[in-house]
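debug: dumping io for the single-chain case to check the tokenizer round-trip. Nothing else runs in this session.
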Amino acid sequence: MTTPALLLIDLQRAIDDPRWAAEGPRNNPEAEANVARLLAAWRAAGQPVIHVRHDSVEPHSTYRPGAPGHAFKDEAMPAAGETVVAKRSNSAFIGTGLDDLLRGRGITALVVAGVITNNSVEATVRMAGNLGYATTVVSDATYTFAKRDGRGHVWSAEDVHALSLANMEGEYASVATTEAVLATLPTG
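debug: decoded output
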């Protein structure tokens, strides 16, 4: 069995801007630590790592190139030789060549971590599933924020996260914890 590529989505300093938490705080405060554990394990096993960087074209975006938030978070900093895929929409597959890159390397499975669970993570995972990739979302290495719905109700980050994971599980991906994913990774 081929080890899946680790796909890290939008783990940039931009996500720490207080604007993201305007409706309430994020969930999974240990997500970055879990991402660092996954990244260290993938590197130690010599397995493929792909970093997705959001290059927003919106002038006031925290993810805009040239803005302080555009830089990767320390826990998810790409190492020399690791692939960085730049995207401009929520899905890492739109306009990026990611599918061609993965297929060209013979990668048919993905382990996905990053932000925001109900936005770029879910959009990417849905497309990955539709394109035929065996995809796993790491539930405690992803996170989101509270969100207000059209009726004015504010849903906690935990609720938004849980519903997003439920949307993905089964049809598009499997969902697992960092521990469960690490247990499947071959050790050198």
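debug: round-trip ok. The chain has a mean pLDDT of 96.
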